[in-house]
Amino acid sequence: MALDIVFKALADPTRRRILQLLNDREMTAGQLAENFDISAPSMSHHFNILKQADLISARREGQQIFYSLNTTVFQDVMTVMFDLFQKNPDTATIADSTAALKNDRTKGKSNP
């Protein structure tokens, strides 16, 4: 389920910090790595998990990889979270929100 991947990505403090840094602007892998005391392969692992969750996107420009925040997914996740924690939850609404998030992610993967 797509939501599980998003929650896994958000569970790690390093990945949350990467998202915070990308909130201000697009950054290269090197610029992001300067903010952490971990190896390049570890950074790459964190980037891959965030990309799998669709929380960030990457584009290559020559030798550089630029990362940016995918705000649409955050909006979708927030909608699901509000549905999960509302006072009188409607299970149909939660299921619809989760299905919509999964469907949107699937469509995004099939369209280059």
Topology:
Blueprint: H1 2-10, H2 13-24, E1 27-28, H3 29-33, H4 40-52, E2 56-61, E3 64-69, H5 71-84, H6 91-110
Antiparallel strand pairs: 1-3, 2-3
Helix pairs in contact: 1-4, 5-6
What value does the Rg take, in angstroms?
15 Å
Count helical runs: 6
CATH class of the largest domain: Mainly Alpha
Mean pLDDT: 84
User: Total strand count, please?
Assistant: 3
Strand order of the largest sheet: 1-3-2
Could you say which structural class the secondary elements and strand pairing correspond to?
A: alpha+beta
- Architecture of the largest domain, CATH level 2? Orthogonal Bundle
CATH superfamily of the largest domain: Winged helix-like DNA-binding domain superfamily/Winged helix DNA-binding domain
- Terminus-to-terminus distance: 21 Å
How is this structure best described in words?
- This protein is of the alpha+beta class and 112 residues long.
- The chain has a three-stranded antiparallel beta sheet.
- It has two domains: 69 residues, Winged helix-like DNA-binding domain superfamily/Winged helix DNA-binding domain (Arc Repressor Mutant, subunit A, Orthogonal Bundle); 39 residues, no CATH class.
- The relative contact order is 0.15.
- The mean pLDDT is 84.
- Helix 1 runs antiparallel to helix 4 and helix 5 packs antiparallel against helix 6.
